[in-house]
Amino acid sequence: MPCKLLNLCEYETHKLVRIQSVRLGSLKWTFNGVILMFICIMMLWNKEYQEHDYVVSSVTAKVKGVALTSLPDVGDIVWDVVDYSGPSQGKNSFFVVTNVIVTKKQRQGKCPEVPPYGKVCRTDEDCVKGFWNQHSHGVQTGACVKFDVTRKTCEVSAWCPIESKKKPPKPALLASAENFTVLIKNNIRFPNFNFMRRNILPEMTESYLKRCQFNRHTDSSCPIFRLGDIVKEAKENFSEMAVEGGVIGIQIKWDCNLDGFLRNCLPKYSFRRLDEKESNRTLYPGLNFRFARYQTEKDVEERTLFKAFGIRFDVMVFGEAGKFSIIQLIIFIGSTLSYYTLCILCVSFVDENHIRVVKKSHKKSLQEVKPISVHPCKDDTGHLSAMVGVLQKGNNIIDKPSQVLPRANRPAWCLCGCCLPSTHPQEQLCCRQSIGRCITTSSLFEQLVLSRPLLEAVLLYREPLSDLTEGEQRIAALRNCSYRQYISWRIGAPPRESIPVMPSCSVWRIREEYPSQEGEYTV
């Protein structure tokens, strides 16, 4: 670290040596060509030269199909789209009924509650008039009535008879729903590029849509899907899934290239099951809801209750579009070339008598980076002048440990106990390679690195007319000079083309002695 107050005005340059060698010149240009080829391949493969935008979409679905079922105690029922579509399931979803439990001719009246929802009783005292809960089918009347030959339950005011079946019939009554078809209309837009498209492509005619059906191998662009094929694509069995119902996800992915003659923007469909299919692994398997059909018989309102099981199809749209951008191209080239720029650092440990030269790493802490070379320490004039200054003042240089307490939150890479955590790998450096005393506890550290009279003398030696009046500028100058003193003491003259790095414990000890008022440090 420089000790000069005007160090920002310094300029340095490197000497260039030109060597006439066919072998070295060929090796240089071969190496540069390989790097350039790699950069170009990665740029084209990942389309790093493009600006990107995410899709905004809307989805509508139209289901078609008719089924005939024969229900016990009801007879033959024809199911069309109005019957089996059920209530709205929310945005970008549609529902198809595949199985039902029917409770016929329900009327408003009084009847025994069905166990286990109804309380088993012996007398009227066991029932509470007006009581109900979330599992009840009605409101208790306060009477205890006969439910079957062996049991009595509390009577309720409800739609009677109460639904008693719990498990859906097997096989599913509307298993033929696998032959129903659905037309999915998906409109998308990429706002940044003002680009719009839909999955019914411009080349699709009315006659084509009347006869096409999605097939991954023969017609993967058709927006009309057979429900059985959707479930099969999700690796499920429609007949099994139809019994209790479930949820299927229809994923539409738009991966669009909007560059000139390379323009390509077509949907890709994929399918998967979204719910847990095993009945023994979930408390409430499948999917179901209830609806009723009402009629009047002899001026008395009746209804037929249907507990409908079915499959809900959720349409999920994902997409990203890319278009050439000169700004993105420049950013990619700059960031890629900077990746190959090598930064050489040198470090010194108090328990070693040499200097390590290492490469800067963006992932591994500097404490763990293996050296690429090892060099002996070389004293410089700054270090020698500092020693002379200490001896002339008659200071006692016998090593008496100073009271520097270990830090409670020391990181794992710290072996001296006095370092502070850092998120930057190049700052994760301790003064030691093995567990032991910290260098900041040495009396020489106090005298050579932290001593204010010595630092002021060094500053005046380098800048005789510098102004050392109290203030933030003086503290910053003393702090920078303290950095330089440590490097001169422990590293000396660093190897060529390398940058000396101080350990975390020493840096923070200096900053504690000469702190910045704002608490921010650039060096």
From TrEMBL:
<keyword id="KW-0812">Transmembrane</keyword>
<dbReference type="GO" id="GO:0098794">
    <property type="term" value="C:postsynapse"/>
</dbReference>
<keyword id="KW-0407">Ion channel</keyword>
<dbReference type="Pfam" id="PF00864">
    <property type="entry name" value="P2X_receptor"/>
</dbReference>
<feature type="transmembrane region" description="Helical">
    <location>
        <begin position="326"/>
        <end position="350"/>
    </location>
</feature>
<dbReference type="InterPro" id="IPR027309">
    <property type="entry name" value="P2X_extracellular_dom_sf"/>
</dbReference>
<dbReference type="GO" id="GO:0001614">
    <property type="term" value="F:purinergic nucleotide receptor activity"/>
</dbReference>
<keyword id="KW-0675">Receptor</keyword>
<protein>
    <recommendedName>
        <fullName>P2X purinoceptor</fullName>
    </recommendedName>
</protein>
<keyword id="KW-0325">Glycoprotein</keyword>
<dbReference type="InterPro" id="IPR053792">
    <property type="entry name" value="P2X_RECEPTOR_CS"/>
</dbReference>
<dbReference type="GO" id="GO:0033198">
    <property type="term" value="P:response to ATP"/>
</dbReference>
<keyword id="KW-0813">Transport</keyword>
<dbReference type="GO" id="GO:0070588">
    <property type="term" value="P:calcium ion transmembrane transport"/>
</dbReference>
<dbReference type="InterPro" id="IPR059116">
    <property type="entry name" value="P2X_receptor"/>
</dbReference>
<keyword id="KW-0472">Membrane</keyword>
<dbReference type="InterPro" id="IPR001429">
    <property type="entry name" value="P2X_purnocptor"/>
</dbReference>
<comment type="function">
    <text>Receptor for ATP that acts as a ligand-gated ion channel.</text>
</comment>
<keyword id="KW-1071">Ligand-gated ion channel</keyword>
<keyword id="KW-0406">Ion transport</keyword>
<dbReference type="GO" id="GO:0004931">
    <property type="term" value="F:extracellularly ATP-gated monoatomic cation channel activity"/>
</dbReference>
<dbReference type="GO" id="GO:0005886">
    <property type="term" value="C:plasma membrane"/>
</dbReference>
<keyword id="KW-1003">Cell membrane</keyword>
<comment type="similarity">
    <text>Belongs to the P2X receptor family.</text>
</comment>
<keyword id="KW-1133">Transmembrane helix</keyword>
<keyword id="KW-1015">Disulfide bond</keyword>
